[in-house]
Amino acid sequence: xxxxLQYKDLDSLYAANLECRACGLRQGCKQVVISRGNxxxxxxxxxEGPGSQEDEQGKPFVGPAGQLLDKILAAAxxxxxxxxxxxxxxxRPPGNRLPKADExxxxxxxxxxxIELIAPRLIVCLGALAGxxxxxxxxxxxxxxxxxxxxxxxxxTATFHPAxxxxxxxxxxxxxxxxxxxxxxxxxxxxxx
Length: 193
Ligand code: SF4
Known about the structure:
By secondary structure, the chain is α/β, with parallel strands linked by helices. It contains 8 helices and 6 strands.
């Protein structure tokens, strides 16, 4: 078991994460995909795992789902310079399947240390897996999206993954409802600083 506290800053954490082979996903992907956005950002978005374009480019959410996410963020007036984006697992699952429980468990210490070092003000889970990992194992995204709780003192909520919107346009409305609340939370946070 790695001692994550030995990584005192993001550079050392990223360098070690890039060398990780703690689960089988690393064998089937091209590279470890850690993040994009501003590590000093107040808002942290957590998805599930890299897809094929993310695996190619080494950044999360750069494929069609990522482009949709960027549009949602712009509509919700969340400035890119205040947003940091990552995934629960850092290596692409084969065939874009969901990460398995043991893979998620293996990768979780990286995410936990990432959150500690980033220290965001707000975490938005994108999809059920992120919500189940950071909010509650019992989370059901259809039932629990848009509800708010705390992750180690940080405000946290969950909504559908943008890839789900691409498959089912009916989800656009609930996601927009969730992001309107996130927008209002963000604006209130800025006012109160
Ligand atoms: S998915 Fe996470 S735990 Fe598995 S090899 Fe990649 S970085 Fe390591």
